[in-house]
Amino acid sequence: MMATQLHQQIAQAPRCSSFAAGSRCQRLAPSVSRSRQLSVTCRAQAGVPMLQKLGQKAAAMAAAVTLSLGTLSGAAVANELDIMNEAKPGAQHVIDDAGVLNRTTKKGLNDELTRLEIDTGYRLEVVTVRKLEFENDAFGFGDKIIEKWYPTVEEGNNKGILLMVTTSKDGAVTGGPKFMKAIGDNLVDSIISDNIPILAEQAKFNEAVYSSIGRIDAVLNGKEDPGPPTRLDTTRVRTFKTKEETAQKKGVTAPIVGTLLVIAVLVPMLQYYGYTSED
């Protein structure tokens, strides 16, 4: 009888069904006897909600990293594929895929190249790329651009490209037959050997492009080539003597020092001898 009443009272005792994460409830069952009391304790399990919060934080961090990498990828992986996907240039003459030319330089170049095309009939494009992934030769890549933009010889005959690869600090000047004949091989060799590497080595990419375009513009307009930039003399002046120079000086100094020592010893002795002989 006592056991039956105990089971009925436990079944009728209020239970905890739902709690907020981290809560705790305790409910005491009615007294069955003076010597016995039943307590029912319920605790909300915080483990599952805690794991869910950690999962949400991890997902948010992963999304932030993905977004940041996506933002950097544009400049970090700029290569020849981006250039090949460009449509044939229209009013603009500058494609700065490497992102090294400032706004003033791009506007100035575009104005100068527009005047060049009007005055001479030659069209020149400026292309910068961070690095070449699939084409090792800058001239080979330049030829591919010309062939893509101007598929026939007639279209590309008087077209040219000045290409600068910023990572390797080199470049190319290439174009159609008429364009290349007009500027000459000597100018091309000088630009890729002097203008681009000298100034790019100093991270002066704007000046490297501007000076190269200035030389091409002068030649196509029948003016005198202003020439390449002056390479800074980085030769260090030696301020110390070599081992050979030190040994040679020692060979000259040793006899002199020895002679002086002999004189310093013999003169007092001769003087003393002279004094004593007179006495």
Brief summary:
The protein is of the alpha/beta class and 279 residues long. The chain is 56% helix and 12% strand. Strand 5 (159-165) and strand 6 form a beta hairpin.
Overall structural class, as computed from helix and strand content, comes to alpha/beta
Query: Which segments are poorly predicted (pLDDT under 50) over 5 or more consecutive residues?
Result: 13-48, 62-77
Overall pLDDT metric: 76
Work out the strand percent: 5-15%
If you had to describe this structure to a student in words, what would you say it looks like?
The chain has 279 residues and is an alpha/beta fold. The chain is built from 10 helices and 6 strands, in the order αββααβαβααββαααα. The protein has a 4-stranded mixed beta sheet with strand order 3-4-5-6, with helices on both faces. A two-stranded antiparallel ribbon has the order 1-2. The longest helix is centred in the C-terminal third of the chain and has 36 residues, at 243-278. The model is unreliable at 13-48 and 62-77 (pLDDT under 50).
Descriptive terms for the model:
single chain; 279 residues; alpha/beta; 4-stranded mixed β-sheet; two-stranded antiparallel ribbon; 12% strand
